Amino acid sequence: MALNLNPNLSEAGKRYFSAYSPGDDFYELLIGAHRDLSDEQSELLNARLILLLANHIGDIGTLREALAVARDGVQG
Amino acid sequence: MLKTYTYPKFNYRSPPEIASGKVLKVPVVVVGAGPVGLGMALDLDLQGIPVLLVDEDDTVSIGSRGVCYAKRALEILDRYGVGDAVCAKGVSWNVGRTFFRESEVYNFNLVPEPDHHRPGMVNLQQYYLEEYLVRRAATRPGIELRWNNKLVSVTSHGQGATLKVETPDGLYTVEADWLIAADGARSPIRRMLGLEVEGKIFMDRFLIADVVMKADFPAERWFWFDPPFHPNQSVLLHKQTDSVFRIDFQLGWDADPEEEKKPENVIPRIKAMLGDQREFELEWVSVYTFQCRRMGRFNHGRVIFVGDAAHQVSPFGARGANSGLQDADNLGWKLKLVIDGKAPQRLLDSYSEERVCAADENLMNSTRSTDFITPKSRASRTFRNAALSLARDHAFGRSLVNSGRLSVPAFLVDSSLNTPDEDAFAGRMLPGAPMDDAPVARDGAPGWLLQSTGNCFRLMVFVDDPASTDTSALSRLAIGGIPLEPLLVSRVPVTACALPCVHDIRGVAARRYDARPGTTYLIRPDQHVAARWRAFDAEKILAAVARATCRQ
Q1: Which residues contact B71 (CB under 8 A, 6 or more apart)?
Q2: Fewer beta carbons under 10 A from the terminal one: N or C of chain A?
Q3: CB–CB of A39 and B379 under 8 A?
Q4: How distant, in Å, are the alpha carbons of A15, B181, B254, B317 from that of A7?
């Protein structure tokens, strides 16, 4: 499974009239999940989230690719 | 400061009621001659309702106000007779560039979707729009515009509202059956009636500068996140007409508005932004805070709120005037049916329901943009910067970057006025959708589908060839005095047709409406789809009109 780098978010049963809506829906949920947390708590939430999503994706080849893309933008 | 625009001064005339001492009785008074109040007056005029429009001032809006008019607003302005003027004077832009820190992250080209009369948006200073609307209203005998007429008190009662209006020559009284409040974000009418508006203020300040560029500068939208010339904040540059550019600097909550407004503080900021010796002059500078809020409902008996008086959003996405014009679009025909006794007063509840829904969508989108542009926590800032850094190379990252989501029309899909589909349709012209335009020919002349709709209920029937179609059932369709005007959309060029007919020259209309011969759409006077079927059925059609007018 190759890493999908195109917009890929949607919610079952929901009809979108603008291309940006599903991404914005998710982003609002993501930022909302951090509301009222300290910086340290936010870091922990992010780490837990990555572990959950990694397990859901399952394919280690895909995860290796994602790790490389993510790391690529941080090295400097 | 340089002035590219000369503000017109509209004539005040002493109202005859001051000399006569008589009370002025009118069916409808609109308070506030901004874009929404003027649009409302023109909409009611198209419906044949005389309108008194009062405004406390005698000119157009002053300073940095609305800039961006989106496609749906332009289509409504077409109905009001000013679409051509706005599009001719306004500037179109397609290229947007997004910068993060030192460099451009990505750019986009919003090539307009072909086969629509109007582009996705045009940029134009609000005073031009108001001037064109005033000029148009002045040609309409049914609209009486009274400048320098200030509402000083209002009482609402079961049969209408009583208004006291102050002029340079004294006070007079108006008895109106209906009062439409288009008196802006700080709505005095709302305050006088003790009505609440709820929401939040964003703890941020923005410096808004209108700048005249002396040198060529591209007609593009530039948005910076955290630029070196204005660290940790955002900056927007947007083209207007007459070589005027709008620049928004995010300042943060602690900024001192009076200090920031001083030219000696503004000019260095802009010089640093342009990064070169291009000459410019300031036209207008002000400091704003933004609020997102709306009234719980927009109709209160015989008093109805439209535009900013009813709902207020942050300016990211140009959802203020664009949504206000859609309020007028939604309200005009409903008020007409209620005044004529052809629909019950609760049809106006649907104005509130539909436009509250649209306002919530606008509030949601502009709040999301504000939250992305001005993150409120470290985690939020980290995610924003991550999205920006991914946007450079990856399409999914670009889709998450939110520097404003431009106003799009409300799809009223949950409205109780819609008749749910019984038949299967593809595409997005579902009940509640605003009509998609399409190139058509009428009487042999090229034109647009939207030009053949609006202002009344219309039955749009797709046919293979009107010459070989029995259209006798289509004429004289009406319910309770509400006529249904037919419009045939023909696949082949029209040779002879007794009914209004357009030729779908390239098949775009049939494609956008997923139509086959016999497909029938019921279109509301505000160009939204109310119902649709695969075949003509008079009984179902009349039931759908009854539903769309609350006659059930």
Answers
A1: B116, B118, B119, B120, B121, B409
A2: C
A3: yes
A4: 16, 43, 37, 21
Q: How far apart are CA B491 and CA B540, in angstroms?
A: 25
Residue range B3-33, pLDDT digits in tens = 888 999 999 999 999 999 999 999 999 999 9
Structure tokens at B222: 């530039």
What is the phi/psi pair of residue B434, to 5°?
-75, 140
Chains A & B: contacts with CB separation below 8 Å = 58
Cα–Cα distance measured from residue B497 to residue B444, given in angstroms and rounded to the nearest whole number: 12
* CATH placement of domain B439-548: 3.40.30.10
What residue spans of B204-312 are helical by DSSP H? Answer: 257-261, 263-274
**Model pTM?**
0.95
ipTM attached to this prediction: 0.97
The helix/strand/coil state of B261 is helix
Q: Nearest C-alpha of chain A: how many angstroms from B267? A: 35
- CB contact A76 to B (< 8 Å): no
Which residue does chain A place closest to B410, by CA atoms?
Answer: A17
Alpha helices in B416-537 (DSSP H): 508-512
Strand partners of residue B178: B28
The tokens for B17 are: 């009621």
Question: How do strand B221-225 and strand B170-181 relate by DSSP bridges?
Answer: unpaired
* Contacting A residues, span 36-75, partner chain B, CB-CB under 8 Å: 37, 39, 42, 46, 69, 73
Helix/strand/coil percentages in chain B, nearest 5: 30, 30, 45
Q: From CA B216, how far away is CA B432, in angstroms rounded?
A: 44
Gap between the Cα atoms of B247 and B245, Å rounded: 6
> Taking the domains of chain A in order of start, what are their residue ranges?
37-76
Angle, vertex CA B185, rays to CA B60 and CA B433, nearest 5: 95
**What is the token pair recorded at B188?**
């005095």
C-beta of residue B338 within 8 angstroms of C-beta of residue B344: yes
Contact B368 A42 (CB under 8 A): no
Q: Which residue has the tokens 């008749």?
A: B419
User: Each residue of B129-184: pLDDT tens digit?
Assistant: 999 999 999 999 999 999 999 999 999 999 999 999 999 999 999 999 999 999 99
Q: Write down the domain spans for chain B.
A: 16-90+121-197+292-365, 439-548
